[in-house]
Amino acid sequence: MRDPERSPEPIPQKRSCAPALRWRAPALAILLLLVTACNAKLAIAQSSGPSQFDVQAVYLFDFAKFVRWPAGSETGPIVLCVAAESGYTENLKKIIAGERIDNRALVVQPVQRPADEAGCHILFIGAAAKDRLDSLLTATAGHSTLTVSDVPGFLDHGGMINFLVIDNRVRFSIDLRPVQRSGISLSSELLKVAVRVKDAPPGGGAL
Question: Among 1.10.760.10, 3.40.50.300, 3.40.50.2300, 3.40.640.10, what is the CATH number of 14-204?
């Protein structure tokens, strides 16, 4: 971990975050990918540094590499749905442009209302959609959608991954209970990088 007093690291370009790693990627590769490369030091008060949204958008791209969806959701494009301000959506589109994961294209789909969530593999709910949080989450029930948010207390509402800012760095916590109910599987290597995993399996294995 870098000294927190050092100057901010520049946000990596999308190519520097490495191509999609396979399911059994070593923990060291994940740590380098998610903590060093894609968890760039935030300079929240400095316009020259990467924004919190920049780092979160790169995380969303990388989360897709370490998720397995159930049969029937493993073909076609991976749909990254965004219920947040338009700037977040545009940042994510730039990051995934031209990228593929396991030979699958990636698509960004804006979400304004629960009916827009059809086909979402990952759903990000930003602070701008806080008032619609519960209705957006309710619409994912019975679907294999990985839900992610930076809204405080997201896991208490039934969300799966909650972004946190700790020592000016974007980190995340995971609740595996809704993950289990959705039929999604998360790589054990992803769980190792989380600052907290609720309902973790014995031995920290994949779920």
Answer: 3.40.50.2300
